[in-house]
Every structure is written in C-alpha cells, then in structure tokens.
Design goal:
Blueprint (H helix, E strand, L loop, with lengths): L5 H4 L5 E6 L1 E2 L5 E7 L2 E8 L3 E2 L4 E9 L2 E6 L11
Parallel strand pairs: 4-7
Antiparallel strand pairs: 1-3, 1-6, 2-5, 3-4, 6-7
Length: 82
Amino acid sequence: MSAASGADSSPIGLVGRIVTASRGQDGPGEVELDIRGGRETFIAISSEPIALGDSVIVLADLGPRRVEVCPWDYPFASTLDT
C-alpha cells in the first residue's frame, strides 16, 4: 500500500480550531485539523494571539507537526462544530 499523496497529507489551506491559545510572538498554541482521514493536533505558530476555540486557516507547513496559522472568520466556519 502506498503512502498518502501530498494533497492528502498537506495541512496548507485547511481550516481548524485552536485547542490551546496562541500567544502570537510570545509563544505557540495548538490547532486541531481534520487531515489524513482523522483529526490531528499541530503546534500553531501565529503572528498575533489567537484565543481558544477560534477558527484558523493554515498558511504554511513549518515541519513536523508545526504549522503557521492566521485567524479565519468565514461564514461556513461553524461547520467545524460537526
């Protein structure tokens, strides 16, 4: 069986929910993403603080389990609660 394709395993562009608040430049938080057929938690790096429960979008993959995120306020973000 082959490994997941790059499109299946890349977190870039995914919308997730902050599960540990980010302090922006003062420290990372954690984001939960639906990826690779499951739900995984990644270290969330952001330029500004992001509160627990806020929606974010992944801008960049920074290496193993680390992603750059920014706030994401999109009308369909509430679908993340399902």
